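Check my protein:
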Amino acid sequence: MTPREIIAEAWAITRREASVRRWGVASSLFELLLSIKLVGYQVYFLYEYFWGNGGAGFFDVEIQIYESMPHWFFWTFIITLTLLFTVELFFPHLAAGAVIGLAAKSKMGEEVKGGLVLALYNFFPIFAIHEIFALGGLSTTITITSVILRYVEGDSKTFFIIILWIMWVVSNVIHFFFSFAEEAIVIDRIGIFTALGRSFKLIISYLGHIMFLLLLLFVISLRIILNAAIVIIIPGVILGVVFLLSTFLSQLLTWLIGGAVGLVLVGIASYFFGYLHVFKQTVWTITYLELKKHKDLDVIG
């Protein structure tokens, strides 16, 4: 298949398979919630660092809620936040196995079912691969940068920040060469290091084909830009609603309405990001299936 045919087939599968989209939307929802929390906290820390008293702590928001809200609301908030944070950390790794496996089944003409089994069976190897490239995540790197700014003294903080962002670039470059590792794990049911090696060989062997595919997949870059914008805009909208309502409503009712508005905005954004997430992952899945058909270039005869 040509790159254009791969993209057309991936979009057809994305639109046709509701079960794949459900996993993609759920994964995008929890990824977005985690990113909003991480970036929101760092924006607050940086604001206090540069324009406030410089004494921002990790639990300032929780302390403020404890002091100004009823105790039942505080404990509900803490328990919900803890449960959400746990799900947000692990669910995207589960969803990756389901999306890849179901998309591959659809491509190969098999019955598209068994998402939960695919998710659970492939969770640990996919989780390990994601953690290897954890520094490639923008939210993670921003969080570590904030920690360095607040807790490292002297001029050495500049050195550590430069090294951190160099590692971010290197991690993303290396991650590119292992782009097919997850597909190899799910589709061929092989080990982590074998999957990394197979991915590296495929990328090197068909680099021109894949680079042309990336050019056609400009929507990936668009998704990153949109995601970054949404992560910044949604907390701003919520704070704006809260400040507006606080002028004439009680504090408890203000936070409840602000939270509801935030959830609606996150839900709408997650729906659209879910489509893009499934589409991007399906492109890589189909590409892997197509490249597997070719003989390895290091095999002679």
User: Anything to note?
Assistant: Residues 251-292 form the longest helix (42 residues). The chain has a mean pLDDT of 80.
